[in-house]
């Protein structure tokens, strides 16, 4: 039986309350000795005479979820992980708000941190998620991942 890929997308910004609740929900999992968390935040990049004020995220969701499922399976096979959670924004996220929340848990810190780092790199390189920067002068341009 094929497992349905877990939805990673949320509309709008990922709130601090959601992040805190996610961390709190793991306190009862006593086999966990380490968590590694990555938070991607929208920057106010200056481009020419304008500044980024928000990013409007879009995705080919079905393909992104399939690819994320494969990445998830590969990282669980590679690292000693207890949990892995990924949340990525869709829609408009303002400067200073969180657009990506990656959370890995493991009995030991090395697995949690290495898996988290690899996961973020693979998300940025391989998922069909795009961001259109909304500029202070009302111009729009596609964001380039760095």
How are the elements arranged and paired?
Blueprint: E1 9-11, H1 16-24, E2 34-41, E3 46-47, E4 50-59, H2 61-78, E5 83-94, E6 98-106, H3 109-126, E7 129-135, E8 140-142
Parallel strand pairs: 1-5
Antiparallel strand pairs: 2-6, 3-4, 4-5, 4-7, 5-6, 7-8
Helix pairs in contact: 2-3
Keywords:
146 residues, alpha+beta, Aldehyde Oxidoreductase, domain 3, eight-stranded mixed β-sheet, 8 strands, 37% strand
Structure description:
- The longest helix is centred in the middle third of the chain and has 18 residues, at 61-78.
- A hairpin with a 2-residue loop joins strand 3 (46-47) and strand 4 (50-59).
- This protein has a single domain (32-142), classed as Aldehyde Oxidoreductase, domain 3.
- The chain is 31% helix and 37% strand.
- Strands 1, 2, 3, 4, 5, 6, 7 and 8 form an 8-stranded mixed sheet that branches.
- The chain has 146 residues and is an alpha+beta fold.
- The protein is built from 3 helices and 8 strands.
- The chain is globular and about 50 Å long.
Class in CATH? Alpha Beta
What's the helical proportion of residues?
Answer: 25-40%
Distance, first to last CA: 38 Å
| Strands, count | 8
Tally of discrete structural domains = 1
Binned strand content: 35-45%
The tally of helices reads 3
Average pLDDT taken over every residue: 93
Annotated CATH homologous superfamily: Molybdopterin biosynthesis MoaE subunit
Q: Using the 3D structure, state the CATH architecture.
A: Alpha-Beta Complex
Summarize the main sheet: 8 strands, mixed
Shape: globular
Give a nutshell description of this structure.
With 146 residues, this protein is an alpha+beta fold. The chain is 31% helix and 37% strand.
């Amino acid at each position: 039986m094929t497992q349905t890929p877990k939805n990673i997308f949320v509309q709008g910004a990922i709130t601090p309350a959601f992040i805190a609740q996610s961390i709190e929900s793991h306190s009862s999992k006593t086999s966990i000795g380490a968590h590694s968390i990555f938070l991607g935040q929208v920057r106010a990049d200056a481009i020419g005479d304008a500044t980024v004020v928000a990013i409007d995220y879009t995705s080919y969701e079905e393909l992104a979820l399939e690819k994320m499922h494969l990445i998830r399976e590969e990282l669980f096979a590679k690292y000693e992980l207890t949990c892995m959670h990924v949340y990525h924004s869709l829609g408009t996220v303002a400067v200073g708000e969180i657009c990506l929340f990656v959370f890995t848990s493991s009995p030991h810190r090395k697995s949690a941190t290495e898996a988290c780092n690899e996961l973020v790199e693979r998300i940025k390189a391989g998922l069909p998620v795009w961001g259109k920067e909304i500029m202070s002068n009302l111009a729009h341009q596609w964001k380039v991942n760095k």
